Amino acid sequence: MNQETIQTATTRKKRVFSGIQPTGVFTLGNYVGAVRNWPRLQDEYDCIYSVVDQHAITVRQDPAALRRQTRETAALLLASGIDPKKSIVFVQSHVPAHAQLSWVLGCFCPFGDLTRMHQFKEKSAKHPEDINGGLLTYPILMAADILLYQTDLVPIGIDQKQHLELARNIAQRFNGVYSPTFTMPDGYIPQVGAKVMSLQEPEKKMSKSDSNENAVVRMLDTPDAILRKFKRAVTDSEGCVRAAQDKPGITNLMSIYGVMTGKSFADIEHEFDGRGYGEFKQAVAEAVIETLRPIQEEYARLLADKAYLDSVLTEGAVRADALARRTLSKVYKKVGFLQL
Ligand code: TYM
């Protein structure tokens, strides 16, 4: 063995973990902010990607729909370029260690840290009839997801940054009380597109659960629907394609276009200098349609092969489970659970 082979045989690649909820077809926001980066990390890192169904039930779900959407979300992740030969892809509820570690970590998380989470405040305002314990303790489960795998890097959109910080705080507290147990995870948040905004209310995040379909572009939208949604996107009356704080609609479209084409804001301003919003919106829609086309085709192919999808998820669960158990067993020993 030469020096280089010895090196690769002995050093573990850094680890990536991320998750997405199976609460319907995911949006262009999910893709641009997070999922788009997942396949890009698979050569350099050991990547683990999860469809987090346990997180989804913090809001009431129809059981049959949740089951279907879980498989569909997995198919859409694979269609987006995640290769199950390189990365582990699995469903959260298939690996019991997530819920098990979550309980322990909950005992290392001050109540006040949970009540100040932006997402808890937003979701409890949106669902006042069902402010359940899961909604409050959700970030602890997310911390368990991340810490179980000794994760180095977490590719997410900006809305999950506060949850990641909570995971780091929990890890630090646990490591301090016992001895180093958890790797400290860092966020991997894109420079552009970390928060894709609603097409109808560009001060608000584009959200899967928005009741106004015109506000959201979904990964499986037809080209006609995509074009229509971008044409109706709320902008401003200036008529000039330039990024500015007081032009959230146009700035959002420029971010989307920039991510789709690799062009900078300066390039885009130059390209559309003297041209109207109509032409710009058409160009943004076309760039999105062309990016989504191969993903949609691959998705249709994958979804027709349920046996293959299920075999990927089965193998993913077995591999994730083996890794997760190692951390859980360390944690159980440290806190003093009797091992027989
Ligand atoms: P979820 O399912 O809401 O979203 C999945 C990913 O998409 C990102 N995202 C966005 N990025 C840019 N613009 C938007 N409009 C937008 N909307 C969503 C999110 O930041 C996220 O990265 N709690 C997580 C799932 C999760 C998780 C984890 C993530 C559970 N455990 C462990 C990382 C690590 C969530 O609800 O994501």
Describe the protein's architecture and organization:
With 340 residues, the chain is mostly helical. The protein folds into two domains: 3-194 and 305-335, Rossmann fold, CATH 3.40.50; 213-300, Tyrosyl-Transfer RNA Synthetase. Helix content is 54%, strand content 6%. It contains 15 helices and five strands. It has helices at residues 3-10, 28-35, 37-40, 53-56, 63-79, 97-106, 111-115, 118-126, 133-148, 161-177, 223-231, 248-261, 265-271, 277-303, 306-335; strands at 15-20, 46-51, 88-91, 153-155, 186-188. The strands form two sheets. Strands 1-2-3 form a three-stranded parallel β-sheet. The longest helix has 30 residues, at 306-335. The radius of gyration is 21 Å and the shape is globular.
* Number of separate structural domains: 2
The DSSP helix count reads 15
Ranges with pLDDT <50 over ≥5 residues? 1-9
Strand order of the largest sheet: 1-2-3
Instruction: Return the CATH class of the largest domain.
Output: Alpha Beta
Rg from alpha-carbon coordinates: 21 Å
Bound molecules: tryptophanyl-5'AMP
Written as H for each helix and E for each strand, in order along the chain, the element string is HEHHEHHEHHHHEHEHHHHH
- CATH homologous group name of the largest domain: HUPs
Using DSSP, what is the number of strands? 5
CATH fold-level assignment of the largest domain: Rossmann fold
Q: Hey, roughly how much beta strand do the residues contain?
A: 5-15%
What can be said about the biggest beta sheet? Answer: 3 strands, parallel
Euclidean distance between termini CA atoms? 42 Å
Which geometry do the CA atoms define? globular
Fraction of residues in H or I helices: 40-55%
Average of per-residue pLDDT values: 95
- Please give the CATH architecture of the largest domain: 3-Layer(aba) Sandwich
Structural class call reads mainly alpha
